[in-house]
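My hope is that you will study the record closing this message with an eye to the fold:
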Amino acid sequence: MSLEDIVVDIEETVDTKNALISLDSPISLQYVAAGRIAQSVLSYLVREVTERRMTNVYDICHAGDSLIELETNKIYKNVDEKGVAAPTTVDVNNCVQGYSPVNRDSAYILCNGDIVKISLGVHIGGYTSLVSHTLIALPTIVPNDQVAPTTGVLADVICATHLATEAVTSLLGTVLYRYENQSGCYGNRPVNGERIREIVESVANTFQVKIVPGSTVRRIKRFLVGQDTVHEVDVKGYTWGSISIEAMTDDPDEGDLKKIIDTEAPADRGEAWLIDISMCTFSGLESDLSQKNGLQVSRRTLKPHRDLKPTIFTRDYNRNLSMKLKSARGVLIEVDSRKSVYPFHLSTLSTSGAPLGVAALVNAEIMAPTRVMMIQGSPAPIAARERTTVLLMPSAKHVGEVVRLSGGGIKPSWVHSEFEVTDEEIIELLSEKRAGVRLRNIQGIEVNMVKEDAQEMEV
């Protein structure tokens, strides 16, 4: 099949604003630019935590968001909408999402042995790269071969999350060298949401950890990466329940009414996919597990933090009300003129009385908060998270390749688990040859904070 045939076929089945025809097409280049910045900023933050001992979570989040804005402003001058697609968060130990403090004095200080999950997102013109990475905060800076690896349940959950992400990345890539088979099969089985679910749950079962609700592997499109406030159709992939307390469900068959996911639809070339997997240690009761899926913790074990208020919000453009409060009207005007469908941090608002105005808009359901969510249990569970964005890219020279926009090339923390994968198909997907899949990791560039911001964090 020639490149021209691939182009025609894609244009017939995918809208032109989302078709990935070649790596040098305008859409692909914007995806790659977003991915390169996300990868660069994540690499910078990992170095700051592991090598330069940055421990204040406010500093980490502020550095991440500032660098994203700085780097996106340097490119695509003719693109109006670009920048932060997901504010930088640093979620520690049993915290699974949403922690990005508004001031330095009250922010959490990382401690030796903390399990740290750094998450952020970048978009250029709506073409988005989201990434998360889990690491262990270490006390000293020494080469890995001079210290013993972390073992036990911490190693189990980090290994399981990492290997599940890698296996799914390879599985999605298999549709590229089998593009002549319109069912998108691998191993005589469709590469769809159900197959993805089996892979992830098999890894979780092997390492004796549980999947956190909200984990998802799904096809994404321009501006559409799974925001709670966006009504979507034609979504394919798989989601393990919901982490949003506004749409809580343990049953993926019920789904979020805003996103009816087709778990049977196969992945296909020319698509962008988000892999977002969180797993946690578990020593609780059977009642703490989903009744329909014992490999997933129940959403009832997820609770908003009692003291940490939401600092990240998303505008619901399906709702509009006339607000009486002046600050609420001001915030709404600012958000509608400066923000998009992506989440934004409270600190980015310049309207006087913004916190009060945002609270009123949340009560009116015009904005949705990203709450700081914790996994409850005794002892407290530990969660790990890996998130990466990939393009299933056709090619004129070969059958195609998986372009991993972010998350590739950053080594996981030095850990060793007593468990190992035994499923032959998963072993093949994790092997050096990756079941024949061509994988390209977008490399980051050297980025640094501007002097003013660096001095501010040192004060």
